[in-house]
Amino acid sequence: MGYDIERFVGYVNEGLLCSICRDVLEDPLQAPCEHAFCTACIHGWLVHHSNCPEDRQMIDVSLLRPLYRYMKNDLNRLQLHCRNREYGCEMVCSLESIDRHERECEYSQIPCSNAGCTVQIERRNLDGHLAVCEYRSRECPNGCGYTILSAEDTQHNCVAELRTELELLRSEMICRVEEAKHEMESRLDSQRRHMVQKESILQNEIEELKSQMSRMMSDVRSLMAAERQHRQELEQAELEKREL
């Protein structure tokens, strides 16, 4: 549905009226035949029809396009009253900015934010209503800290509420301790596995070093034996030389 034409100040061009609801175009779309419609109106029409409601030419949703820019500009410049005029708002602004104004309008009827309260009240009076609303929340006047949400809550048992709160705190503390315990155990297990893995790696490295050391000792003994053999051969050669 479009904007009620009675809200507008001055003359409204016929081309800016929806061909279906005959109100001023809201979120407009244009058919190939250049007739314009509110988006909601033309979509509802095409559910049961397949032609333009003005000239009966065949149209499809896929053929609908945004309004021509010059028409869109003319539409946005139209001046109209706030929808809260009946409640006292005297604002007149352009169609382009009316939605922003109405979202913030002090005369808008909005629901009370307290759970259970069904009162609709002007935004400008909301704070005053919240201060006296019977559904407003407040702390127990006896000092137990209980949040009173309704008139029935004023007769609550402070001792029982404190016990309940204490049990909740105790349960929460136990849960936190258990969580900390599990987390610590998990960390210890992880560190233990890491240490075992590291120990295994170090043990392998030690065994490899021992193996290398054994090979080196074997090589040294072989070299020493070769050296003795070479020395004996030299001594034998020296004796043969002397005999000659």
TrEMBL record:
Residues 18-56 form the RING-type domain. Keywords: Coiled coil, Ligase, Metal-binding, Zinc, Zinc-finger. SMART domains: RING. It comes from the Eukaryota. Residues 101-144 form the TRAF-type domain. Transmembrane segments: none annotated. InterPro entries: Znf_RING, Znf_RING/FYVE/PHD, Znf_RING_CS, Znf_TRAF. Residues 192-243 form a coiled coil. One of its GO terms (molecular function) is zinc ion binding. A zinc finger (TRAF-type) spans 101-144. GO terms for biological process: regulation of canonical NF-kappaB signal transduction. PANTHER family: RECEPTOR-ASSOCIATED FACTOR, PUTATIVE-RELATED (PTHR10131:SF157), TNF RECEPTOR ASSOCIATED FACTOR (PTHR10131). This is RNF41 ligase. It comes from Malurus elegans.
